[in-house]
Amino acid sequence: MSNYKMQNWDYSKLDKNMKVVFVTAEFNRDFTKALEDINEELLRVNWFNNVEKFLVPGAFEIPAFVKLVKQKLNPDLIICFWVVIRWETTHYEMVAWESARGIMNISIEDKNSTAYINWILTCENEEQVKARISPIYALSGLNLLAERKKVKNSKK
């Protein structure tokens, strides 16, 4: 596994009341709940408390629900959590690819008014999933928002 370490941006310039939405697959719930909890904690300790959470049955349902959340709530950041484990079949490839493509398409269509962090864990087994449960997803979202703010300010 990579030893990549993401840098922390200066979050002081971000609105602490910005709306963050988690859209999480209920399938493999033990793991997706752990992802939610650790990322919600990272947001909380950085004073981002406006987090709303939604559960959907599985990965295939996430893109359609994300589009609905975007239309109804217009959040600043949407983080999607889902875990697909290969086990003994290859259906996980179809689930992972198509669901990821759905989120990518929504992000492209959105013209950057909402930040999307699509965190799918595609692993061979449960041990690999456990090794990858991390707060890096919320950190990625905050970094993306901080970078956008920096770019907007440089254009002024």
Radius of gyration: 15 Å
> Widest sheet: strand order?
2-1-3-4
User: What's the SSE pattern?
Assistant: EHEHEHEHH
**CATH H-level superfamily title:** Lumazine/riboflavin synthase
Please outline the helices and strands:
Layout: E1 20-25, H1 29-45, E2 51-56, H2 62-73, E3 77-85, H3 91-109, E4 115-123, H4 126-132, H5 136-154
Parallel strand pairs: 1-2, 1-3, 3-4
Helix pairs in contact: 1-5, 2-3
Summarize the structure.
Helix content is 47%, strand content 19%.
How does this model look, in words?
This protein has 156 residues and is an alpha/beta fold. The chain has one domain: Rossmann fold. It is built from five helices and four strands, in the order βαβαβαβαα. β1, α1 and β2 form a beta-alpha-beta unit. α1 packs across α5 and α2 packs parallel to α3. The longest helix is centred in the middle third of the chain and has 19 residues. It is globular, with a radius of gyration of 15 Å.
Which features characterize this protein?
156 residues, Rossmann fold, 19% strand, alpha/beta, four-stranded parallel sheet
